[in-house]
Amino acid sequence: MAGAPDLAAGSFSDTPPWTITDPDALAWRQGLDEVRRAVVAEVPRLTAPRRWPPGARLGTVVRHLGGALALWALRERRQGGSHSRAGISRRLRRAAERLGPTYIKLGQIISSGEGIFPAELVDEFKLCRDRVPAEPFRVVREVIEADLGRPLEDVFRWIDRTPLAAASIAQVHAATLRTGERVVVKVQRPTVARRVREDLRVMAWLAPLLVGRIPIAALANPPALVELFAQTITEELDFRLEAENMLDIARTFAELGQRGYVVPRPHPTLVTRRVLVMERLDGFRVDDVVGMRGAGVDTEAVVRTGMIGFLEGAILHGIFHGDLHGGNLLVLPDGRTALLDFGITGRLDEPRRIAFLRLLMAGSTNDLTGQLAALRDLGVLPPDADLDRVVRELRLDQPAVDPTTMSGEQLVQELQQVIKALLGLGARLPKELMLFVKNMVFLDGAIATLAPDLDLFGEITNLSMYFATRHGDRIMEDVGIDPRTVEVDLDGVKASFGVDASTERLTHRELRRRRETIRRNLARRRR
């Protein structure tokens, strides 16, 4: 750690453009606890049921969404099944693009929610990930100068007028400070905060009206989705909170001794509600396997670092990056992974962190009741949920069935029964669990790209051994179970993959082949 005196405070780069040895002393960080509480308190007000329509924005939204629904009803609805769901998904995506940043952001969250939202909806909204026009540079200049309180040229020697990326909430520009450091400047769109709040009120008013009226609503649960979205997007509207997330996660990695991740340093003074200046890091895109291997990077080690660091932060410190995707990761030439964009961050209070730890411990030992009790304490199930009834309703006491042996009709029927049972049990998806599942889906895809021949069962066993040997005392203190004395039972994991308990090895390449079989069976049903 020589040459980087702030590495004790965070898992930062080794060659700092500036140092942050005392994060708590930063001027822009003062009072953020109150700001964070106010953001949390605002969500119920924005999403509360209203008797009367919420303002003029409703007309615009209804025109676009109503037009999409009307065309779907005339053209695709009567065909039913997947064709109907694909039709409404396509029309909703086009309406979202016309409605602007808030709806595009919602689409982006849905697009990375494979396994959470209907496949047709996910596939369609993937198309709108990068379709956000950039703000003119004169607007960028106005925001920077207003928030920093001085002319642009007094801060930057150079700033690229063309953004590196333009997203729904903000865009980022490469720049060089007057003092010579290479940086990235994140600038919020000037009207987005007001528009987001207007749109959330409209979404909350419309969502209950969609339940049971369109084929994707029963799966996605529009009111719950709006609440999840509101919890997520309101935090992104203050870049001081994002900069604090960066420091908190960097500190967590440092305390864990996890140096496989690198977090860019936010600037000590150039952080405001709408402007965030941070250290610029360079590396390989996470899907650039050829480039990484050419540089001698062990791509399997990148995957393992991803899984370990992500789980450690969540279960031991209750904080984790909440939006892992290819655009938010860089693999550095030395094999470490740089995390970018901390606007969406999962934060678990202590009771829910303990519940989350219990969930993963119960999963590793195939303790079904323990997993359900942990899910109840996380808020997935009502506090008074009868766990025996949950087991019966979800048929968790029945032998696992290999989904590759099921016809398309059987697969759809099974899915419908599970959804109906979950809704009847009052199940919901808390924000942090949604972010966790979404990240796990990304890591699943990363394995497919970076390490397709990784033995999944072997890696799960190795993960369990890692946590038992490295964090056994902490886990024992938190949940009263010593993982060093517990035998890993993969039967539950194997059942979730739909393979027989006698299966000893399963690579991701083999898992992908199984998934392709399932997709073909579903496709035959559609035909």
- The helix/strand class is alpha+beta
Helix content class: 40-55%
Alpha carbon gyration radius: 24 Å
How many DSSP helices?
21
Q: How far apart, in Å, are the first and last alpha carbons?
A: 61 Å
Give the averaged pLDDT, no decimals: 87
Taking the sheet with the most strands, its summary is: 6 strands, antiparallel
- Give the overall shape, derived from the CA principal axes: globular
**How many DSSP E strands?**
12
Low-confidence stretches: none
Provide the β-strand percentage band. Answer: 5-15%
Verbal overview:
With 527 residues, the protein is α+β, with helices and mostly antiparallel strands. Among the domains are: 36-130 and 194-235, no CATH class; 350-526, no CATH class. Helices cover 55% and strands 9% of the residues. The chain has 21 helices and 12 strands. The protein has helices at residues 32-47, 57-75, 81-99, 101-111, 119-125, 137-148, 152-155, 192-210, 217-220, 222-235, 239-256, 289-294, 299-317, 350-364, 368-378, 387-393, 408-424, 431-450, 456-479, 491-497, 508-526; strands at residues 156-159, 165-166, 170-177, 182-188, 261-262, 266-271, 275-279, 284-285, 319-321, 329-331, 337-339, 345-347. Strands 1, 2, 3, 4, 6 and 7 form a 6-stranded antiparallel β-sheet that branches. It has a 4-stranded mixed β-sheet with strand order 5-11-10-8. A hairpin with a 4-residue loop joins strand 3 (170-177) and strand 4 (182-188). Helix 8 (192-210) runs antiparallel to helix 10 and helix 13 (299-317) packs antiparallel against helix 18 (431-450). The longest helix has 24 residues, at 456-479. The chain starts with 31 loop residues before the first helix and ends with a helix. The mean pLDDT is 87.
